[in-house]
Amino acid sequence: MTQPILYFTFANQEDDHLPKLKQEIDEIKEILRPLEQREFIKLEREESTTTADIIKTLAAYPDQIAVFHYAGHATGRSLELEDRSATSQGIASLLGAQSNLQLVFLNGCSTQAQVKQLFEAGVKAVIATSVPIGDEKAVLFAATFYRALANKRSIKMAFEFAKAAVELTHRDAPDFVIQRGVGMMNEETEEVPWGLYVQEQFADAVLHWRLPYYREVGLPGHMLQFIGSQFKVNRYIVMVLDEMCRYNKDIYSQMVEVRDGEEVKKDSSTYLDLVIQNFPWLIGSQIQLLRQCNRPDRARLEQLLSTYLITGMTLYYILLSDFWDNKRQIGFSTPEEVPDYLHQKREELPGYDFLKRILVLAHTMQQGSVEFFLPEMIGFLEKLQDQSGHLFKAWQYLERIKTDLSSVEEDKLEKICLTAEQALAVLLKEAAFLADYRMLTVRNISVDNPRYSKVLYDMGLGNLNALVNTSLSLYEDAEKRRKESYSNCKSVILTPDENDLRHALNLSPFVIDKNTFLNNEHIDLFLYAYETEGKYHYLAVKHSFYLALANEKGTDIIDTDMTLEDFNEGRNINKNAKIDDLSFGDAFDFGDSATATQESPKVFDLLESQFEQLFTDLN
Predict the structure, then answer these.
(1) Which residues pair with 72 in a beta bridge?
(2) Range of the domain at 37
(3) How does pLDDT run across 534-583, given as a tens digit for each residue?
(4) Other Cβ atoms closer than 10 A to 172
(5) Collapsing DSSP states into helix, strand and coil, what is residue 251?
(6) What CATH number should be reported for the domain holding residue 20?
(7) Is residue 99 domain-resident?
(8) DSSP character for 181?
(9) pTM for this structure?
(10) Are 126 and 267 found together in one domain?
(11) Are residues 196 and 111 part of one domain?
(12) How many CB atoms lie within 10 A of CB 25?
């Protein structure tokens, strides 16, 4: 797949200088540089653009330019380049010849009049201005638009996000004196001047167009052969690195090192660590347990199925959180089974098919023309429904084995373990796009706003996609804690860029960091599991799904009705239970235990209130 080219042109004038133009150049370059380094896109940039520069660049990349951006002085009839005024008709003719051009962005004053000529030349979509625009607003709008685009938002969503940023930041402020047009604007306007204009026949495709986030090349063939020869157990799990490298090419550099100018493979025992560290910790912790179950026996088969279940639950709760957000914003009917899913019973939990639940949610969202927070989910869903494809067959096999787990014969375990590993690897391969996201715990947020300084947010957060830290702990580095934007606190969030938390999906109350509610510096992740009598129960992901559900350790299941005393004593009890129903040690502590229980605060009551809000919104 040829990398799409984003072509940026800037022009300034000595006698009518735009002081913020250099800032726009630098900010956009900084925003898009990571995508270029990962070989998703290619950037072409002219900081002092002439007509000859545009002609030369467009000729050098026939049908490869995806976005054309101009920033500088403009009118409804021309772009004011460094050497001369380029007529709108001439620019339109050149750009119309680029068949793969998705968007023309004219970030200058009053460029709306050029839209008609661009459309007549065949350009599909244009961002243009209806009035003169302030230099500072122009920088904010452009930087916010490309930051959203870099964070996997579509053209439509990026435009709406950038417009909202300008409205929020400059709502009560007059426009600035310096304008991106020839001459000065005499009248102030409160109107946000940018418009997104799309030709009707291209509207659906263009509005949903995104920057690429996938490379055709994963691991080199010799590396795949090496993995095949080195691993007898978890071989197919390690092979998932091939797909992960298509989303994050930096993974390969962690598998090799250069010695005396030659590329040498690192110790292959670290390769499984890369799979573990590049999945969110919910899934990575389950793969870690597979390392301990290295014999083809019942314990390994159970852990393979546990990894399958936790992976399905993780994807389902991500989509359910996305569904909830969109339900509140735009509204659509909720399938009757969705609320029922959340009232699932403990004894029935191992039999639930979470991938099937994903299809129910996704179908409703697609009918409502909702854009997924995870755009990769579109391809995942298509493969999940393709009955002739590997993902569908792997899904059906794992469901069949999960249902018949207790009846699997001993002499067939070795073969079934191998096939189950292959099937699990297919699912993990199709979910490998999660390696391109960060799952973070956000404990608390404080505002740092000294006089004449930029507002920053100091956040108690930690990375649950353990690319940097192999232990689950909060960031201690101030640079990692201090952000220009913030997200919800007391939550676990998912984001494509942890430095821009405006693009984040809140996974609460489905995924929680238990110690957020206990003021403990360490991180301990739990997934929502089942409900009984209005109490919502969570399982620890550091154990096998089956071990956590059995609650053999006494504290692997927590619920929203637990008090601090219950938790400290390692009890998971119903506060309304009669004394006779409890063991002597749990119910009697030679003190006024009944009074103490009543006075002890509930630890997870915030989650209970969030479930109540969820059911209100769904219904």
Answers:
(1) 11
(2) 5-207
(3) 899 999 999 999 999 998 766 689 999 988 887 777 665 444 443 344 33
(4) 6
(5) helix
(6) 3.40.50.1460
(7) yes
(8) B
(9) 0.87
(10) no
(11) yes
(12) 19
